[in-house]
Amino acid sequence: MNNFAYTQAASTKEATAAKAADKQAAFIGGGTALIDLMKSNIEQHSLLIDINKLSMLGIENAATGLRIGALERMSDVGEHPLVVQNYPVISQSLLASASPQLRNMASMGGNLLQRTRCGYFRDTAFPCNKRQPGSGCPALVGDNRTLAILGGSASCIATHASDLAVALVALEARLTLESPKGTTRTVPLADFYKLPGATPNIENHLQPGELITAITVPAAAHARKSHYLKVRDRASYAYALVSAAVGLDVQGGTIRSARVALGGVGTVPWRVLAVEKYLVGKPATEENFRAAAALAVRDAKPYEHNKFKLELAQRTIVRALLEVV
Amino acid sequence: MSAEPQFFDKPGGFVGKPIVRVEGREKVTGRAKYSAEFPLPGLTYGVLATSTIAKGKIMSIETAAATREPGVIAVLTHQNLPKLAKTPNTPEGKKDTGSQMGFMPLTSDEIFYAAQPVALVVADTLEHAMHAATLVKITYQKAAPIASFHDPKAELFDPQKIQDGKADGHIRRGDAKGAFASSAIQLTATYNHPVYNHNPMEPGSTTAVWDAPDRLTVYESTQGVTRTQSTLSAMLGLPREQVRVITKYLGGGFGCKGSMWPHTILTVQAAKAVGRPVKLMLTRPQMFTSMGHREDQTQTVQLGATADGKITSIVHTKTSTTSPWDNYAESNAKILDMLYATPNFEATYQLARANVMTSTFMRAPGEAPGSFAIECSMDDLAYKIGVDPIEIRLRNYADHDYSTGKPWSSKSLKQCYARGAELFGWSKRNPKPGATRDGRFLVGMGMATASYPVHNSQGTARARLYADGHAVVQSGATDLGTGTYTVMTQVAADSLGLPLEKVRFELGDTQLPTAPNSGGSVAAGTVSSSVYLAAQDVWQKLIKMAIVDKKSPLYKAKAEDVAVEKGRLFLKKDPKKGEAFGDLMKRADITDIEGMAQGKYGSGYEAASAAANADPAHKDEAAQHAMHSFGAHFCEVRVDMDLGTIRVSKWVSVMGAGRILNAQTARSQIIGGAIFGIGSALMEETVRDQNFSRYTNADLAGYHVPVNADIPNITVEFVDEHDPFINAMGVKGIGEISMVGVAAAVGNAVFHATGKRLRDLPLTPDKVLMSGVNS
Question: Exposure of A139 by Cβ count < 10 A (0-12 exposed, 13-18 middle, 19+ buried)?
């Protein structure tokens, strides 16, 4: 870990201005991911801008749905009655993440910006295009058991690590971003993340100095009947091998709307529109779920050690959908 | 000793009782000082910089940037580190130093394994040292490494000996291949094991203080202060008494702290170089490449049997990865050789050198993987001939040790099977595999036999009894966190007839009487015997005093006619005639009296000194009995075949392991071993990249050990067992048997649940899922 300066921002304006002024600066919320990255020498920051005093809080019903302040802690959101009742997939994805101690510290905004757990990225002795552009990707022919089968490139197949992001992408959540100029914009979370392509070091569309201030999630029937299923190597405190965030609106046995996204298989949280489209208008049967799930991995590219994800992804979708009918 | 110390079993004693840890309060209040927690004046901090390549040469080292950093005191490399009197880099040096690894980093520019130490930065704070270590710039000439025996470039060879000559590379008893070929039933199976790392909670750490230019104190995280002292004195060329090693508390070891590793001597050299105390604590990622590991290995078992399931032959081969210098392999064959009535046996080891550090003993070395192989194969045999897994084991029950031909000193395995089955509800098991369901889950029940030898070992203890009724008892043993402080306090209190709170037991210092390494499950038996015998030495001295003391009721009695119970000396024939030790000592005006004794392996209360004078290297063979603990594990799993997940839903372990010193700490040991084994069965695996020969998951986020949610309630029982041959206390030790057979019990339960035999550990969801897809 390098030496760095530390400042506490009193306002979002102050925070974003400080970040815009220093390319090597980073915001620090809970710090659970950032400090690890700095201790492992994966990231070096000249300045940490503490945003914990900013008023980016609140878990509330807004005009169009749920609004969550970016500084809310994972555990508070995961256990909030509004979220548990109307957006169970969000609550479940949060409570299946990390450990209670980490969830008590980690912020919602920070969770969405966490970086991959790819072992080659996490050890600076390895080449890694994400960490050191142009150095190569040993994972393509190495230990790729936990890595992506969807959205990868010849440069990178690192899996996106967030559970929360999978649930939010399924529910078409949007981020509110504030710029150093004080202007705000909202972007769909699905468009916020960037596929690795030839530049896996660039992971999202944040502009210099921009800060995530809030997350909004539209209310919907499929959000109320939603579920998050996470398959992993141990019962708790492990990243997903495969996860599925699903929501269904079933009326009279027929699916009116469906939402399906996958985690653990994509370089970004992976919504599978083809699966959703297949389901709409059909009876909510296991048979239809299976047929739909097969579409999820149509374009997948497995590697030597992660072929099992082709099968596991489909089964995880089916099992998750069965939970909500 | 000629009589069993039965007084331990009388009412009012402490031995055997579930006494809470005597050091528990110290630990939970943070007052217990672990080896990295000794505040010393002028203390500095050492951090290792390690190699980014696995094979090659250092071409240049740029230390200027690191040296310029604030607080940096020294940047030490192979170019400027003080030279050692002796390194383990030659076979002779390895023998003299007792080093597990025949190589010492920072003695040349050569790189043999990934994350090999290449520099040590010393600074005034940990943070300064950590940062400066990242600024040491090294250029390498890279060569292509070999990653394991799986590597097509690896060359397999047959070692004459494994484990530094301590075990044979080829074992043959009868004509195993011939007998197999002519057996009615022939089963062949191959088992694969990943690299495992010990990962004790407390990482390795060293604090080195040169008290004088030729006098050293080291606060070390080790399972044996004596072995560390001996290695240090050899490497430094100092007399042993000028090297003091202290380990007051240990946060686990599991074998990786059983011998001294390079970081320790590097810290000592750094302290010499900077002229100040240096503390170095390995980081968690460094723990994967600094203190050994369990080697990656594959085993093939050929099991021949008669049509009714009686074993005729076992042929075992093991192929594993070793380092560029050493022929180390866990000796898996031992347990396959002795577990059942096997008339013909053959085992062969094959090794391949790769760019890895030397592997080392890890909890139940050999027995853990060996038991997985034999106990899964026994399960296969049971299904093959259609009998219950317990029945197949009873049909092959070894009434003596077939590997040595000797009688058992004691063996309670049949009771373990019976009691385990009863506690578990084994009789409710549907014998048909794949036939029991609970909702979405396939339910399976499996069991396996456990055994672990009582190893040759001896140690000494000193007991000092004070006239005012308290005692200080000492032995240079280690408490790995498993209860040595507590059980030795219990033994000392009973032996000296004192209340627990009047006994202080001290350990973990080379200035105390020498004790063996806490490894190989020897500590409890050896140290407790030493403590018990040291107390007897105290009583013998007091009896001698009493019988010449005119004022004593025992005046002119014969020493052999005097007995001692609860601190009172009395005539055996007339128990009313006697006095308390305090009265005797006060009359003689002595404040304290000291006893000293050596507890020995094979020197039980019926077989006094059976092996006492044998060649130390062959004491195991010299004993007249084969000495083992035995047990049985029972496991229930729930398997989700759709998702590939396995959950252990019930566990029972029943053990026969001689005298149990503390019902509570012993139970915890067995639970810990079961969890350790379940981890190895279901999730633990260190993944080595085959191109870089470097680990890709070297931290506790990537290396999965069980969490609470993975572990069900665990039921533990001990069979009452008295063994008169093993040592004075009749204690066999339970640190390792607790995990022997655990992975097999899980694997057997998975087979019973699913009808799929999985032989490649760990049994992660991908393997379970694909076993179903492929069928």
Answer: buried
What per-residue confidence (pLDDT) applies to B619?
A: 58
- Omega cis (within 30) before B724: no
Check if the beta carbon of residue B263 is closer than 8 Å to that of residue B117. yes
Asked if B6-32+457-600 and B396-455+623-773 have one fold, the answer is yes
CB-CB neighbors (< 8 A) of B647 in chain A = 235
CA distance B130 to B283: 10
B758-769 residue pLDDT tens: 999 999 999 999
Q: What is the pLDDT of residue A141?
A: 98
pLDDT(B297) > 80? yes
- From B180's Cα to the closest Cα of chain A, the distance in A is 36
What's the average model confidence in pLDDT over A88-93?
98
Residues in B 260-289 with any Cβ partner in A closer than 8 A: 285
Q: Which residues in chain B have Cβ-Cβ distances shorter than 8 Å to A138?
A: 689, 691-692
The C-alpha atoms of residue A98 and residue A100 are separated, in whole angstroms, by 7
- Which of B134, B696, B709 lies nearest to residue A143, judging by beta carbons? B696
Percent of chain B with pLDDT over 90: 92
Nearest to A161 by CA among A199, A130, A136: A130
Phi and psi for B44 in degrees, rounded to 5? -120, 170
- Edge-first strand order for the sheet with A270-271 is A226-231, A242-251, A254-263, A270-271
Q: What is the CATH number of the domain that holds A8?
A: 3.30.43.10
The whole-angstrom distance between residue B664's C-alpha and the CA centroid of its chain comes to 20
- The predicted structure's pLDDT at residue B457: 86
Average pLDDT over residues B581-597: 96
Rounded Cα–Cα distance for residues B746 and A87 (Å): 38
Q: What phi and psi, each to the nearest 5 degrees, are found at residue B121?
A: -100, 130
Q: Provide the token pair at B481.
A: 């966190």
- The CATH number corresponding to B396-455+623-773 among 3.10.290.10, 3.30.420.150, 3.30.365.10, 1.10.10.10 equals 3.30.365.10
- For A168, half-sphere exposure in the C-beta direction (CA atoms, 13 angstrom radius) is 30
Phi-psi region of B589 (alpha: psi -120 to 50; beta: other; left: phi over 0): left
Secondary structure (3-state) at A235: coil
pLDDT higher than threshold 50 for residue A195: yes
Domain ranges of chain B: 6-32+457-600, 396-455+623-773
Give the pairing of strands A25-28 and A47-50. parallel
Q: What is the model's pLDDT at position B623?
A: 78
The total of other beta-carbon atoms located within 10 Å of residue B6's CB is: 9
The string of pLDDT tens digits covering residues B442-501 is 999 999 999 999 998 889 999 999 999 999 999 999 999 999 999 999 999 999 999 999
* Range of the structural domain that residue A233 is part of: 221-324
Fold of the B6-32+457-600 domain: Aldehyde Oxidoreductase; domain 4 (3.30.365)
Domain of A238, CATH number, reads 3.30.390.50
Residues B205 and B37: their CA atoms lie apart, in Å, by 10
Residue B167, pLDDT score: 87
- Amino acid (1-letter code) at residue A225: K
Q: Is B391 one of the catalytic residues? A: no
> In the numeric block, which tokens belong to residue A299?
């374009």
Q: What is the mean pLDDT of chain B?
A: 95
d(CA A43, CA B685): 27
Proportion of chain B above pLDDT 70, given as a percent: 96
Q: Which of B689, B695, B704, B707 to mutate to test binding with chain A, by most A CBs within 10 Å of its CB?
A: B689
H or E element, residue B770: helix B765-773
> Can you give the pLDDT at residue A64?
87
pLDDT band at residue B608, thresholds of 50, 70 and 90?
very low
Q: With H, G, I as helix, E, B as strand and everything else as coil, classify residue B498.
A: coil
ipTM: 0.97
